[in-house]
Amino acid sequence: MLATIKTRVKAMFPSVADAGVVSTWGGYIDSTPDAVPVISPVDSIGGMFVAAGCSGHGFGAGPGLGHLAADLVAGGAACVDPTPFRMSRFTDRSKIEVGDF
Ligand SMILES: Cc1cc2nc3c(=O)[nH]c(=O)nc-3n(C[C@H](O)[C@H](O)[C@H](O)COP(=O)(O)OP(=O)(O)OC[C@H]3O[C@@H](n4cnc5c(N)ncnc54)[C@H](O)[C@@H]3O)c2cc1C
């Protein structure tokens, strides 16, 4: 994978083609199968809510995610339609498009 990245960077930025790699590391990314966050009550556990799975956009999406999560926990009107973010989409036979990361 690193070789592929280096090839693409060289193609896009020829001026840094000879730059070396100082260090590398690996880790998890918080993703869901469809790359859409889960912001939702957990239907099978009353009072439990999940707000996770931002798939590499958690810093940017965090404020909106937090706003919707707070609305759901408080039980009032939601700031946006929460349907696309429901956890049950993975179990209610909804068609899931595998996300592109
Ligand atoms: C390489 C990389 C680049 C990224 N770049 C961007 C970007 O440019 N823009 C952007 O918007 N987003 C980016 N993101 C995504 C963003 O970092 C995440 O979406 C965001 O940090 C998720 O926040 P979170 O609080 O939901 O989860 P996390 O930040 O993962 O926090 C979860 C916390 O829970 C703790 N924890 C886990 N399990 C347990 C347990 N059992 N008990 C107690 N504590 C536990 C963990 O230690 C961690 O501190 C990037 C992510 C990665 C990996």
From TrEMBL:
Its cofactor is FAD. The keyword Flavoprotein applies. InterPro entries: FAD-dep_OxRdtase, FAD/NAD-bd_sf, MTOX. It comes from the Bacteria. Residues 3-72 form the FAD dependent oxidoreductase domain. One of its GO terms (molecular function) is flavin adenine dinucleotide binding. Transmembrane segments: none annotated. Keywords: FAD, Flavoprotein, Oxidoreductase. Coiled coil: none annotated. The keyword Signal does not apply. This is D-amino acid oxidase. It comes from Mesorhizobium delmotii.
